[in-house]
Amino acid sequence: MSARGNYDELDIKSLKVNGFLQQVQPDRFSLRIKVVGGQLTAEKLQAVSKAAEKYGDGTVHFTARQSVEIPHIKSENIGLVKQFLLENGLEPGILGPRVRTITACHGNAVCKHGKIRTTELAYRLGEATRGIDLPHKFKIGITGCCNNCLKAEENDLGIKGGVLPNWQSENCTFCGACVKNCPAKSIKLDKHARELNIKDNSCINCGRCVSKCARGAMGGTPGYILYFGGVFGNQILTGQKILPIILTADEVEKIVLLVLEFYCINGKTNERFGLMLKRIGMEKLAQVLKEKSKYDRERLDEHPKTCEYHMA
């Protein structure tokens, strides 16, 4: 039997869309499990273990993007595995030219450095982008703070938790702690004039000035720093920040959907988002994002040849 097993090429593509990856071994598949934001309940993790023992070889693989795979599934057991997943509240992972499973660190739900609710945002964006077909795969990663554990700039669209600082002069003792702890050297303090200035164009919104202020003179609003066009594969591109910090999850969702629409209209088949931006220019995306303050998902229907979505 060939490595294709009982399936022709068209079936292999269909299986991949539904989470089954063909292995090098003949008639064997790895099943990718949907894991959003790196979170699985203990009960579901036990179900994955049972599936691996019953239908695989008793092992699981944790992928680089927080998913779980069950390898060595025989083609004859694919239907049984799919039924087992359904009965245990599990879904196959997303593959093919779509928004892949969204990765996230713990965020401020667990980590003391976290500025945003990363897992909640991952689920929200996962639902908002579900079923949209794109020119190529599209990766979104969410990291809770500027320590950048998930390396936001490596993603097609990376999101980093940040803080918009707000100086309150009446509480300030002009001790200089904020200046000392600012990694971007964006804060200028004049003790004699009793003035403090923050350079918006160089502030990286890390929030250290807020956390190091003992008097509460440096307040801050948590927000989302977005990076566009990262690619870390055969070619490497670093995602770029082209917008100021975004202060609401609603606006982040609008921007994400607007970016996908832009990708659908301008991307070529099998062209990664970052390589498209390199070809047409980052400034074109920046212009669209800065001009359009309201997003309507129904506009995706205007481009059926380049961007279709199938709602499950």
Quick tags:
4-stranded mixed β-sheet; 9 helices; 312 residues; alpha+beta; 4-stranded antiparallel β-sheet; disordered C terminus; elongated
Q: How much of the sequence is in beta strands? A: 15-25%
Distance between the termini: 34 Å
Order of helices and strands: HEEHEEHEHEEHEEHEEEHHH
Helix content: 25-40%
Low-pLDDT residue intervals, each spanning 5 or more residues: 1-5, 293-312
Structural class: alpha+beta
- Largest beta-sheet details: 4 strands, antiparallel
Commentary on this structure:
This protein is an alpha+beta fold and 312 residues long. The protein is built from nine helices and twelve strands. It has a four-stranded antiparallel beta sheet with strand order 1-2-4-3. It has a four-stranded mixed beta sheet with strand order 5-6-7-10. A hairpin with a 4-residue loop joins strand 8 and strand 9. Helix 2 (42-55) runs antiparallel to helix 3 (78-87) and helix 4 (118-128) packs across helix 7 (249-266). The longest helix has 18 residues, at 249-266. Residues 1-5 and 293-312 have low confidence and may be disordered.
In brief:
By secondary structure, the protein is an alpha+beta fold. It has helices spanning 9-17, 42-55, 78-87, 118-128, 177-180, 208-211, 249-266, 273-280, 282-291, and strands at residues 20-22, 28-33, 61-62, 68-74, 103-104, 140-143, 157-167, 187-190, 195-198, 218-228, 231-232, 236-237.
